[in-house]
From TrEMBL, chains A, B:
This is Crp/Fnr family transcriptional regulator. It holds the Pfam family HTH_Crp_2. PANTHER family: CRP FAMILY TRANSCRIPTIONAL REGULATORY PROTEIN, FUMARATE AND NITRATE REDUCTION REGULATORY PROTEIN. Keywords: DNA-binding, Transcription, Transcription regulation. CDD domains: CAP_ED (cd00038), HTH_CRP (cd00092). Residues 164-238 form the HTH crp-type domain. GO terms for cellular component: cytosol. Residues 33-102 form the Cyclic nucleotide-binding domain. GO terms for molecular function: DNA binding; DNA-binding transcription factor activity. InterPro entries: cNMP-bd_dom (IPR000595), cNMP-bd_dom_sf (IPR018490), Env_Response_Regulators (IPR050397), HTH_CRP (IPR012318), RmlC-like_jellyroll (IPR014710), Tscrpt_reg_HTH_Crp-type_CS (IPR018335), WH-like_DNA-bd_sf (IPR036388), WH_DNA-bd_sf (IPR036390).
Amino acid sequence: MPPLDFEGHKLDHVADLKSPQCRNCDIVREIAFCADLSQDEVKRLATVRCHAALPASYTIFREGDVVDHVYSISNGAVKLYKLLSDGRRQIIGFLFSGDIFGLGTHDGYCYTAETITPTHLCRFTHRKLDSLLEEIPRLERRMFSMAVKDLVAAQEQMLLLGRKTAKEKVATFLIQLSLRAEKAGMPTSSVALPMSRADIADYLGLTIETVSRTFTQLKRDNYIGLPASGHCVLNDWRALKDLAEGA
Amino acid sequence: MPPLDFEGHKLDHVADLKSPQCRNCDIVREIAFCADLSQDEVKRLATVRCHAALPASYTIFREGDVVDHVYSISNGAVKLYKLLSDGRRQIIGFLFSGDIFGLGTHDGYCYTAETITPTHLCRFTHRKLDSLLEEIPRLERRMFSMAVKDLVAAQEQMLLLGRKTAKEKVATFLIQLSLRAEKAGMPTSSVALPMSRADIADYLGLTIETVSRTFTQLKRDNYIGLPASGHCVLNDWRALKDLAEGA
DNA sequence: CGCTCAATTGACGCGCATCAAGAGTAGTGG
DNA sequence: CCACTACTCTTGATGCGCGTCAATTGAGCG
């Protein structure tokens, strides 16, 4: 994938503010950034945002890049990952509609962000967002509580990576996706798997082969069904949850 | 260890505000909470704090407990951990002087906090701290940036747990302690190891035996020296760092 | 000195990685 | 529409790193 010039707005997939998907963006941002903001505050926020549509497997920024923007996903899916020098990869998180990413330190972003599917993003510069934070104290609260939420999830993932078996890891992953689907108002008994086996493996600290074998095993034991690639049916949610928690 | 009544102030190790170590607490809090607060703001903060001295291996709160306080370590060492139902444990972090802990969600604390060594703590109720956050916006900024710092560290630890070998894990751990010592103004070539091998193992997603063997191996290869229990000398910082990063 | 518990060391086994082959699956162009 | 290509995914055979089990050594403490 040649690096298209997204940051410089020359990418031909970039949509402008008048495009149809921007209305959708407004809706989604209600969920994410602005759930408890007033109409005026939402409008003020809208003045500093920028919208873009990106293809699949598109690198949004790399670990170490200067931190200049915060991103909000309108729709699509994004993965965040860190690399070791020899290419070993750890996926930090999968993000979907309504999720925010782009926090970092003065050393730059601490992970690489890449689209999984074609994705619509909203983007805010840190500079403009900072001045907004002065204006709207509740926005700061909201950013804080989202960072705490991410922190709690990261700690849960540390338990998974350090102490769970392959079977428990995959079960936990499916439960996570199911809970996520529930929050988005989707059915919990069937989850979409837009990411590849390689992505799942790098998220769970396993290899592609082990992930594949574990899926097969869970299917054989009737925990799940795999009707089509990219989809998974959870036959017994409770049993899968117990498996995920090592019971 | 019988559970002493710390929360009800009946613990005989609890020190009051006039005790000598409280002056120390003021100094340390300069580093932690209040680095950029005014004298008045620091004094205001002092009105809502409560101080306690705890013995080693003392459980401060448990995963799932109602979130009512935020804690700041004056001196000593604390470990945070999560448990699976069958007893498998993952240590989320080791905390030292100046560190803050006690964030959580409405579901309660998401980890258990336990002292490693005898420890002096400052404690703030969430309720009082919340009202302070209204008064002192900069305090909210500070809490936010500390949550981000924790998040970045958690993501780095995910890379360690998911993708590093035992040798790389132990090397990374020693480098972490060394960098921490540097920030505290201590020499980087020698680090204190107040925690047990079991704690180190549960932090790195290994067993006691593997940690022990890896220390022995690093010593044999002259990366480190182990002059006395609880101490480790880093003979070649750069080489250890390269090892930690998988080079 | 002797008790207790942490740490080390050794022997062995297992879960997951590695290596390798085969079976879908999707995109491409004639 | 089908062949061709390039993947991704699955499945099998084998190996290794780390876990498990067990015994010994060492350190702190009354």
